[in-house]
Design brief:
alpha+beta, Phosphatase 2c, domain 1, five-stranded antiparallel sheet, 6 helices, 21% strand, elongated
């Protein structure tokens, strides 16, 4: 604006409309000088703002990098801790299934997270009776691992108690004394001696028992609260006979609760049907068939809960 005024002023002088101040007839040069100065000032101001903006961006980038490294280190630490907890939990599971003359046994576990809440175990007594434990702690992660550790310790010391509900009552008392909060353990114990089967359950899915003689699958259900809830809850204990060729399926609820792409659960009627279709096969083959059906059901959907199978076939 200053340079324009100078040019106009110069023109007015040149056509003798105005008289030059101080007798100087060339004034546009000053306008150009002022324009140059103004441009220089603006350029300096813009450079300063640009430099300030670049410094701010660099500072923000450094802060983000620091935060990323802190988060990365924290995630690495948590990953290591979860892996240690996972290894601890896996170390508590039986390294091999017990060898019982008239039984063929196979197991399968697939956790949904680094440390799952599922658990299985065996106790083979001197009299030849086999007690099988299968459980599902609420939630996942370290807390579930703590519950599994506790239950394994109790099962190792008291798992061969003749009357299974007494074991459940003792577990609930110990859990409540430890004040673990809203942490519970669904559990089932199955005892097999010769051709007799005894079982009790605390909040677990049904047992599926394939009868070789009738070629039918029985659904054995016992309803009960998970361990760690109400003390002195009345648990049932059921006895039944098993024969050569019969097959027993114990499982956690993760398999029946698999979701497909339509947000539908696989559910227990399908589990029963799948088991019926393969029940005459060997336990390892039954597990392979069930897991394959589960994978086909959920396709690309995530596995949201642990899946555990214990298969027992009477020879």
């Amino acid at each position: 604006m200053t340079s324009i005024s100078a040019v106009v002023y110069q023109i007015l002088i040149d056509i003798d409309i105005v008289k030059p101040l101080g007798g100087n007839t060339i004034v546009y040069v000053y306008g150009i000088m002022l324009l140059s100065i103004a441009v220089s000032i603006n350029l300096a101001r813009d450079f300063a703002k640009t430099n300030e903006r670049l410094l701010a961006q660099e500072r923000h980038a450094r802060e983000q990098e620091i935060q990323r490294r802190v988060l990365e280190a924290d995630n690495l630490r948590k990953t290591r801790e979860l892996e240690e907890a996972r290894q601890l939990q896996l170390s508590m599971l039986p390294h091999k299934v017990p060898q019982v003359a008239h039984l063929e046994i196979a197991v399968h576990m697939k956790t949904a997270t680094e440390v799952g809440g599922d658990y299985y175990d065996f106790n083979l007594s001197d009299d030849g009776s086999l007690t099988i434990a299968i459980g599902d702690a609420t939630g996942h992660g370290t807390k579930a691992g703590i519950m599994v550790t506790l239950i394994k310790s109790l099962f190792n010391t008291m798992g061969n108690i003749f009357y299974i509900p007494d074991f459940f009552h003792h577990c609930t008392k110990v859990i409540k004394k430890m004040r673990l909060g809203n942490l519970y353990m669904a559990m089932m114990l199955v005892r097999i001696k010769d051709h007799k089967l005894v079982f009790s359950a605390a909040g677990m899915p049904p047992i599926y028992l394939y009868r070789n003689k009738s070629k039918k699958v029985e659904e054995l259900i016992i309803k009960g609260l998970p361990l760690g809830g109400i003390e002195n809850f009345t648990y049932q204990q059921i006895n039944t006979e098993i024969s050569s060729g019969d097959t027993i399926l114990l499982m956690s609820d993760g398999f029946a609760e698999l979701f497909n792409e339509n947000n539908e659960t696989l559910d227990y009627p399908r589990v029963k049907q799948y088991f019926y279709e393969c029940a005459e096969q060997a336990p390892v083959e039954i597990i392979s068939y069930l897991t394959k059906q589960g994978e086909e059901w959920r396709k690309n959907q995530p596995q949201t809960d642990d899946i555990t199978f214990v298969l027992v076939k009477v020879k």
